[in-house]
Amino acid sequence: METFVIGIASLLGLYMAWNIGANDVANSMADAVGSKAVTVGQAVILAGICEFAGAVLVGAPVTDTVRKGIVNPDTFLALTGLSPAQAAALFVIGMTSALLSAAIWLNISSIMGLPVSTTHSIVGAVAGFGIVAAGWSAVEWPKMAMIVASWFVSPVAGGIMAYILFKFINRFILGRDRPARAAIKYTPYLVSAVTATVVLATIYKGLKHVIGNIQWLTPEVSIMLTVVASILTGLISRVILKRRLRGKERLPVGEQLELVERVFVPIVIITSCSVAFAHGANDVANAIGPLAAVVRVIETGTVVHKVGVPFWVLVLGGFGIVMGLATFGYRVMKTVGTDITEITPSRGVAADLAATATVLICTRMKLPISTTHTLVGAILGIGLARGLGGINKSVTNRIFGAWFVTVPAAAILCVFLFLLGKMYYFDYLTEVCTK
Amino acid sequence: MSIISDLFGKSPFGPLVEHTKKVHECVEMIRPLMEALSHENYIEIRELHNRVSKLEYEADKIKHEVRSQLPRRLFLPVDRIDLENFLRCQDKIADYTEDFSVILTIRNTKIHPGLIDKFFKLVDQVFQVTGTLLTAAVELQNLAEVSFSGAEAKRVLKWLDGLGEEEWKADRIARDLSRDIYKLEHEVDTLTIIFYEKMIRKLGQIANEAENAGDMLRGMLVR
Fold it and tell me: Which of A324, A402, B99, B201 could bond to A18 as cystine, CB 3.0-4.6 Å?
C-alpha cells in the first residue's frame, strides 16, 4: 500500500517536473540559441545534461525548503483530535494536491500564453493548503516572508549584476579603439568569473548526498579549488583568444566587433549551460519538494522528521525535467531560434552570468526563486545599460501581470483539490500511515 | 513562446540603417537627372523620375516599419525624440529628391550653357553632404553594438563635425549660381529663371535636411 501511494506521488512529481522542463528550460538556453551560438538540437542536449547535473548535485537545499520549510509539519500534529497517522494523511493529501494544482496551473497558463513561474505556483499551492488544513500558524511566516522578498530581490539583483557586467564588457572591450586587442586582455576575467560561480556553488560545503563522505572537501578546500579552477580556465582562454584574435587589430572597427562577438560565442554557450545548471538546481525542488515530503511521511508514518532529501527523488526530478525538455521543450526552443532576436553573444554572457550567480546564491541560501524572472531582470538590466535596441513593452506587462495572478490562482486551485482529496482519501491514507 | 525571445523583439536600428541606404539610393539619382537635363533627354528624365518615385515609396515603407515598432519599446538606448527626428529628416531628403525629379518633368527646361558647370558643381557638393551623412548613419548598427559610446561614437561624431562645413559650401555655391542666373536676366526668359530657382532651392533643401539629420544623429551620441 505504501509503495502505491509513493508511486502515485512520484508520478505527480514526474508530471510537475515534466512541466518545468517543457516550460522553463527554453528560457535557460534562450541567450545561446537567440544569439545563434548553438542550434536548437544542440541546445536541447546541452540543456538536458546541465539541468540534470544541477538538479542532482545542488538541488537539495531548496527541495528541503519546499518539503518542510514553507508549511511546518509539526502544526499538523498539534491539531486537536488527530492521531499521528491522521496528521500524516492530511499532510500527504496536501502535498500531492499542491503538486497537481501547480502542474495544472502551469498547463492552463501555457495554453493561455501567460508566462508563469513554476516556483511561484508550487509555493503558493503549498502555502494555500497549509492555511486551510492547519490554520495560519501552519505556514512558516518568517520563512515565507523571506521567500516572497527574494522573489522581488532576485530579478533586481540579476538586473544590477547584468548592468554592471555589461557596462564592464562595453567599456573595456567593445567600446575600445581596438576591440580585438581589448578582448584578448579582458575576456579571460569573464571566463574566470563564470568558472568561479559554477564551481563554488557546486562544491562549497561538500557534495554530501552525491559522493557520500568526502571529509577533505572543507569550505577552505572548496574555495581553494575554485580559485585554482578559475585561474586555469582564465589562462586557457587567454591562449585561445590570442590565437584567434592576434593581428586582427588593424581591421575596420565593424569587423573587429564582429570577431569579438564570435569569440563570445563559446562563452555564451558555457554561460547558458550554467543558467540551465542553476535552473535545475533551484527549480527541481518545485517538483520533488512535495514528493520528498510525501515519501518521508509515508515511510515514517508521522510528520516529524529531520532527515534530508532522498537521492533517488533528486534523480527522478532531474529525469522528469529532461523528459519535459526533450518532448515539448524542443518545440519552444525552436521559436526562440527562428524569431529575429537582437541578442548578441556579449549581451547573452552578461545576462546569463548575472542570472546564474543570483540563482545559485539563492539556492545555497535555500530560497526558491523564479529562474525565468531573474533572467528577465538581468535582461532589463542590460536594456538599462543601453545594450539593447529596446525591450518589448507588452511582454514585460504580461510578465508582471502573471506575477500577481499566479500565487493566488495556484493556492485556490490547491485548496480546492485538497478539500476534494480530504473527502475521498483521508481514511485510506490514515490507514497507510498507521504504523 | 519563450518569454526571453519575446522580450527582445526587434530593435529599430537595423531598419533605420536600411532606410538610410534607401534614401541615399534616391539621392544617387540626382546626377543622372542633371545629366539627362543637360543633354535635353526628356524621355530619360521621365524614366529616372519613375525610378526615384519608386525608391521614395520603398523608403516610406521602411519608415512606417520603424515608426510602428517604436512606441512598443522600453529602454531605448537613445532619446526617442532624436530617433524620430532623424527619421523625419531622412524622409524629407527622399521627398525633396522626388520633388526635384518632378520639377524636371513638368516643363522641358533648357539649361543655359554658361550655367551648366555651376549646376553640376552644386549637385556634386550636395552629394558630398549626403554622402558624409551616409557614412555616419550606416554606423548605426555598430553604434548599437557599443551602446552609443566609446571610441566608435567619437569616430562618428568627428565625421558629423565635417557635415556643417560641407553644407555651408553647398549654400555658397547655390548663392553664386543664383547670382550668375540673374546676370542672364535679359538672355533667358522669366519662366526658365523661375525653374532654375526651383531647382536650386530644392537642392539646397536636400543639403539642409542632410545637415539636420546629422544633428539628430549627433544628439543620439552625445550623452
Answer: A324
